[in-house]
Structures are given as C-alpha cells and as structure tokens.
Amino acid sequence: EAVTGAAAENEPKAALPVMTNTRRDNSMSEITLDRLPKTLQELQEMPQAALTSPEEVAALTVAALALYPENPSETEKMLDFLRGPRPLNGIDKQFIKDRFRGKEYLMRSYFSGSSPDNNYTPEQPYRIMISENAYSRSQIGEGYLTLYVNCSGADSPRPLKLRNKPSTGQWFLWEQ
Questions:
Q1: For the segment 11-21, what is each residue's pLDDT rounded down to a tens digit?
Q2: Backbone dihedral angles phi then psi of residue 28, each to the nearest 5 degrees
Q3: Sequence-ordered list of residues with C-beta below 8 angstroms from that of 11, at least 6 positions apart, any chain
Q4: Residues 6+ apart with CB under 8 A from 49
C-alpha cells in the first residue's frame, strides 16, 4: 500500500550526492563527490546544477560519463542538461558509444587514485582534479573556457571546453 499525504512527506529521501570544490592554487581545483549521481533528477537537485562554476560543470560531466557503462540513456539525459541549449545529436551519441566500447574502465581513470595497477578503481570519496593552462582562456572573449581533467589513463590531462552564457552566468559543456 502506498504511503500518501503527510506520511509520504515524512518518508526519508535518498541523500543527494555532496560536492565540494577546493581551489588548490590559481590554476588547479580539486572537486570531491561523496557519491556519483545515478539519475538526471539527482544531478539537477545538486546545488552545482545551477552551472555557475565552470570547474563544477566539468566535474559533473565526469560524474555523468562515469554512469555510462551502467546506464547510457541516463548519461545522455545528464549530458543534455549539462550542454544546455545544445543537446547531444546522433553523432555525439555514437562517438560516446564508440569511446566506451570495451573500455568500461575509461571514465574511472578520471578519478584520483585510479591506475592501471588497480583496474582504474578510484579512491572514495571521488576526487577530480581540474586545471587550467596558459591557453585555457585564449577564447574567453568569445565565451569559451577550456579546462583540463587529470586522467590516469593518459599522459596529459584531457580537455573539456565550456561555454559561458552571459545573460545567466551559466557555464555549459561545449566539447568533451
């Protein structure tokens, strides 16, 4: 029997993932998530879903992509949200599918503590290192910022390009 009315309001809700953003220096941020969002609704209910910090948008992108092997369609919904007015198209979806084929570990390599030696098993809580380099702001006048995410599966941090919407101050995923 379903619980309704006031009793339903008193039912404990699942806690949302908690994200903290710690700036290590002028060019490096460490984003920590106690757990990863499993649904678009969980992601949208997080305070960072206001999309006002480019580093947090980058971290939400990594968190969304980490869900892909388990739930591709929910990942696509999350990415559509993070992309704002420019949802994934068929080519984007196929590109992501191709990147993950046989490489379910791929997104785990973006979390601190992961390595080939431990099958890319990240430390808990999940930590994502995001940095800028000398070229990150080369297109800032046009509204673009390129951030770099540390990756234990690559020789150098991987780029994420974001676009700012001046009227709202929001940052959206542009290229991953």
A1: 445 677 887 87
A2: -135, 130
A3: 3
A4: 43, 60, 81
Q: Using CA atoms, how far apart are residues 103 and 150, in angstroms rounded to an integer? A: 18
Per DSSP bridges, beta strands 19-25 and 28-33 are antiparallel
Q: What is the pLDDT of residues 21-61, one digit of tens each?
A: 776 666 899 999 999 999 999 999 999 999 999 999 999 99
Give the pLDDT score at 3. 42
Predicted local confidence at residue 127, as pLDDT: 96
Share of the chain above pLDDT 70, in %: 90
**pLDDT above 90 covers what percent of the chain?**
77
For residue 27, CA distances in Å to 44, 52, 69, 82, 142 come to 27, 18, 31, 23, 20
Alpha-carbon dihedral of residues 156, 108, 29, 171, nearest 10 degrees? 100
Give, in order, the Cα–Cα distances in Å from 61 to each of 8, 91, 167. 33, 18, 22
If you compute the radius of gyration of the chain from its CA atoms, what whole number of angstroms results? 17
Residue 134: both structure tokens together: 């000398």
Q: What is the pLDDT of residue 24?
A: 67
